[in-house]
Amino acid sequence: MTNYSRRTVLKFAAAGAASTVLTPTMLMAQGNGWPERPLNMVVPFATGGYNDRLARAFIPFLQEELGQPLSVANRPGAGTQLGNTYFLQQPNDGYTLKCNSVAPYIPLTILLQDAPYSAEDFQMINLPSRDFTLAAAPGDTDLESMEEVISRLRQDPRSLSLGVQPASADYLNLMLMLDAAGIDSSEIRLVTYDGGGPARNAAAGGHVDVAFVGGEGFLPLIDRIKPLMAFSDNRVDVYPDTMSSGELSESIGEEVESVEGSQRGWVVSKAFVDEHPDRYEILVDAIERATKNPECIEALEEQQLATTWYGPEQSQEDYLANFESLERHIDLLRES
Amino acid sequence: MRIGNNRYTVDWGHLLVVTVIAVISAAYLRDTLATSTHVNNILFVLPAVIVALLLCLAILPQIVRRVDPVKGAREKTRLDVKPGEQVTTQSWTELGWIALLIVCFGTYVYLLDRIGFDVASWLFITLGLFICGERRPLPLMIYPPIATTLIVVGFNALIPYPMYTLIF
Amino acid sequence: MIDLVASSAALQLLASSPDAWLWVIPGLMIGLVFGAMPGISITMAMAIFLPATLYMDFLPAIIFLTSMYTGAGFGGSVPAILMNIPGTSSAVATTFDGYPMARDGRHNEAMGVALTSSVFGMLLSYSVLFLVISPLADIVLGIGPLEMLVIALWGILLLGSLAGKHMTRGILAGIFGLILGTVGMNTAGYMRGTMGVPWLLDGIPVVPAMMGLLAASQLFNLVNSNFLVEDESKRGINAGKIFYGFRLAFKHPIVILRGSFIGVFIGAIPGVGSSISNLLSYAYTKRGDDNPETFGEGNPKGVVAAESANSSSEGGAMATMLALGIPGGGATAILLAAFAMHNIVGGPSFIANNQEIVYAILFSNFAQGILLLGVGLGFVFVASSVVRVPLRYLVPTVLSVACFGAYAVDGSMAGPITLFVFSVIGWMMARYGYPVAAVVVGLLLGGLVETQLLRSNQVSGGDFTYLFDRPAAMAIIGVIVFSMAFTAWAKRRRKRRELTAASR
């Protein structure tokens, strides 16, 4: 562990100065056409979260492509509603982008908080980060499998405590599963958490029997939990040994529907796309090239951030599909 | 007010404070009950508000004070209060200046994102300086722009949020 | 439990790149400045400087970031003492006695006491962690909703000791705070009291509300005063007195030790951490003291209790992060990100596989603590000059800075609006003998109490015998009851002895 490559302070200072002072001016000098001035990246979360880290890690590569510096503007609050509203209030000139967990937050703010915008106001450029709901039990659990959870709940809905964040995609997945298995959801013993982190800790600490939370966040705790099922039609790469809800459908003979837990990535406003299709093309190209830049892939992977390129059409389609399934089951969400 | 041999006064300001607390608590309880009467919603709020309202009732008698016939007149005015100490001795002039400062502060907050943080701060610091007793024109002209510049530039450098300014 | 091989590997690691240590002083200074500015959190500082560390090697990067973290821990106490502004929730208890000391012209001493207690708390916490970091992960995960509820209720018991002259008003103020602390969306997803304002969904913004209640409300009353310290002869900045404060802190060894231990263990709990530990430590010190009435009037023991607890909490939070890979707050989330950039992933396996790195971090924090003593002294020296500024300049300027600070919390007008509303509420309440500090404590604890009460009820299915399945919760209750009974008994005995001595 001691063979670190030693770099002198001077070298660092040069690199640091170059990155913060020289680069923007150099970039501006080489810029031709749009964009002509620095851009903003709205992050509707506080500093330190996944989206904030994703934006800050990706920006160096994106500004290389755009030839203009980009700065992060954090606008947290009200489950991204404040940030989304602020974002849509900016001029439609393409100088403001957004990095957001579009799913489930945009649908949920619209459906549950009467947010003053609609799903179609946003145009996805790329949603590299996808997550799924994972059902996980504490490491020392006596539960063998998801089938056992179902059979115990069928016998006595109050026999197991289930931890989940209310009004979330995870909650919806849980309700859809109970529905398919014919378990009365008003009878179950639900323990509510106001975030993914606390719910995961509750599973790892053995305070709930099963927790339903986004799967990627569980990875650091993998030694202390027992993954039971991923809510996805097929098995997921990060938990290859864990059954999927598609497999559960087969074993209980009922279709278990599931929605994607979260979709995160780069967003612009629909109004901007209509007004400046040429600028939109430039942005899409720049983000595509940055996403596919091997240096960028390496840097982001080191920080466990996603870089897959799905493209605007696929991303928008996935995002709207997620919105529709949340909208379709809005009654299940309202009950929480 | 006179009952028997004693004179009583009602402390209207104190009554206002208790009323404000009671009204806010009661309105909050009403809104909570309107949202849902599920136990997950009212488990804590309902008992807490009830206790708060009972305490407001218990405090009501303290608002009516007996006037001490010997001391009678008001004590010497004192503006500066330690935390937790009750002040009843601020004079009307002093209260007026305080009220003016509070109004200015409220207006300042209202104007921040309407006329820009820089201009609003410059105006507020100038007015605040005057309210707090500075009457010489030169400091009133020189200090506020300097302070405003330092604050705006400093905060702009430190925070990761956009800030609406007119000049900077 | 100490791994000697790993320890020596850690020392080698630290010695291998001495230039990494060049980053300690700038890190500490950045931390102090960001920490001392109200509303600006250390998370922001670290988020801003994180990209710069991409160009550094692992060790300098981590030393630079942890130094900022260390510096910010003390930075928050400076405005708390000088202006009654707790820049973060962990400095609330520091204002209780720190600010009265400053008004009394004892600002030099107060700063000295705060700095020493902070550094001592930090050193002690890292020493404790050095011993128990491996089992800590299990302890922290084992803390469930009922245990958290008991700890939160313990904090609420403190409200009684903040009451001051009028007990009913003190309790009402505390309960009013608790009620306001539950506004917004609760943990079960119910939205109440938001009046249609979107940002109230996240609850009342605590830092701006605190600044309004404690600081702005006081500033209004200073309209016609001349100086923060009325006695001109005491207005100086005196190194001798700061050093006297250094020694003063060690005159109360029990207070400083107790504060540090409370801080380490409460700080290790993700999500509560330092905002409760300083209150608990303060309450304990006040209740156990021979002269509880001198607290809140400028008793240095109050500052010792608060500062030793909040700075040792940082060690606790750092340990949770290392041991679980779970960030307790934004700042530790950024440290985790910095680790990840260098291919080191936090989590239970992290400690087992990378013991030398864990120990290297602990050792370097130890060294940072000692250096903080020097850097902090210089900082205190500069900051104290505030007492020489005439109040007619200070009052509008500080109100304006508070406004910017309130905006800086999350970059929205929610902050300044909350600041203003609570400054008026605070001024009115203080005028009629309601302890605003109790409202602040209530506001801090309200959401926590409701959340944990709700979860305990959900987990247990409403069955009270659940308590008997939770030995940890019973143990905490036992500690509370025992310590309260012991203080009461000790006090009575002391009084009786005094009485017999007097009658003789």
From TrEMBL, chain A:
It comes from the Bacteria. Gene3D superfamilies: Bordetella uptake gene, domain 1, Periplasmic binding protein-like II. SUPFAM superfamilies: Periplasmic binding protein-like II. Residues 1-29 form the signal peptide. Keywords: Signal. InterPro entries: BUG (IPR005064), Bug_dom1 (IPR042100), TAT_signal (IPR006311). The keyword Signal applies. Belongs to the UPF0065 (bug) family. This is Tripartite tricarboxylate transporter substrate binding protein. It comes from Halomonas salipaludis.
UniProtKB/TrEMBL annotation, chain B:
It comes from Halomonas salipaludis. Residues 20-158 form the DUF1468 domain. This is DUF1468 domain-containing protein. InterPro entries: DUF1468 (IPR009936). The chain crosses the membrane at residues 12-30, 42-64, 92-109, 140-159. Keywords: Membrane, Transmembrane, Transmembrane helix.
TrEMBL record, chain C:
The chain crosses the membrane at residues 20-40, 47-69, 111-133, 139-159, 171-191, 203-223, 255-276, 321-345, 357-384, 404-425, 432-451, 471-490. InterPro entries: DUF112_TM (IPR002823). Residues 22-440 form the DUF112 domain. Keywords: Membrane, Transmembrane, Transmembrane helix. This is DUF112 domain-containing protein. It comes from Halomonas salipaludis.
